[in-house]
Design a protein that fits this description.
This protein has 258 residues and is an alpha/beta fold. The protein has a single domain, classed as Thiamin diphosphate (ThDP)-binding fold, Pyr/PP domains (Rossmann fold), CATH 3.40.50.970. The strands form two sheets. Strands 1-2-3-7-6 form a five-stranded parallel beta sheet, with helices on both faces. α1 runs antiparallel to α2, α1 crosses α3 and α5 runs parallel beside α6. The longest helix has 20 residues. The termini are close together.
């Protein structure tokens, strides 16, 4: 129940930020906020590291950082405003953000390097990376996976937010990748698939660490989860209207009571 309350507050805060700033990309943020809240509250230690590869979901990352006290309410009020460090894609100027990302497809490479560096440093830290499913249409991700498997980077966990949509439509229609899990397994990674909106399933998957293998967690999610335009392309681009914002806040506020 406590985690559900934390998630409820995070989702409302995420809505407030995007509505106040008048920016879109709410759909991809809502498909991954469950994972980020679980990661920051139940899994990561102070020594662990996180890389957000799907940069459009910066808002969800900022809210996760806010939920653990790294960012403040005043910080979040500057989201996407002139002169802010909290831009629409994460900047390394933000506390708790290691890399400025947003050119999709580089987070897995950066995270693989961090994982190998941790080994050379004799550190037990884990590296977590969140990608979109559309990013895996890009070759650099597969190169990173080859690298991480070859180097037996068991301290690396790559999470794939498989919400099935990208900027030009359904991911399978833009460039079909068939069964992603089978492809990850064929490269030699420990691969699991879970409901990306089930907090217990997410936490269990994130705790997996198989000797000698990086882990890939495919999160089956819904773009704009819980919003009126769930699984619609419009949630990739369009900002919320006032009526949409009010209705979404009301729906989220009633969830924990149901």
């Amino acid at each position: 129940m406590l985690m559900k309350i934390v998630l409820q507050k995070a989702r409302v805060k995420l809505l407030q930020m995007h509505y106040s700033a008048g920016v879109g990309h709410i759909g991809g943020n809502f498909s991954c906020i469950d994972t980020l809240i679980t990661l920051y509250h139940s899994i990561m230690t102070p020594d662990d590291r996180f890389v957000l590869s799907k940069g459009h979901s910066a808002g969800a990352l900022y809210v996760a950082l806010w939920s653990v006290g790294i960012l403040s309410d005043l910080d979040l009020e500057t989201f996407c405003q002139d002169g802010t460090t909290l831009s629409g894609h994460p900047s390394r100027e933000v506390p708790g953000v290691l890399f400025s990302t947003g050119s999709l497809g580089h987070g897995a490479s950066l995270s693989s390097g961090l994982a190998l560096a941790a080994r050379h440093q004799g550190s037990s830290r884990r590296i977590f990376c969140l990608c979109s499913d559309g990013e895996w249409q890009e070759g650099s991700n597969w190169e990173a996976l080859i690298f991480s498997v070859h180097n037996r980077l068991e301290n690396l966990a790559i999470m794939v937010d498989q919400n099935g949509w990208q900027g030009f439509g359904r991911t399978g229609d833009v460039a079909s990748m068939f069964d992603l899990c089978s492809r990850f397994e064929s490269f030699g990674a420990k691969t699991v698939s879970v409901d990306g909106h089930d907090l217990h399933a997410i936490a269990a998957a994130l705790r997996i660490r198989e000797p000698g293998k990086p882990t890939v967690i495919v999160l089956r999610t819904r773009k704009g989860c819980g919003l009126h335009f769930e699984n619609c392309l419009e949630s990739h681009y369009l900002p919320l209207t006032r009526d949409q914002y009010v209705a979404a806040c009301a729906a989220i506020s009633s969830e924990v009571l149901s």
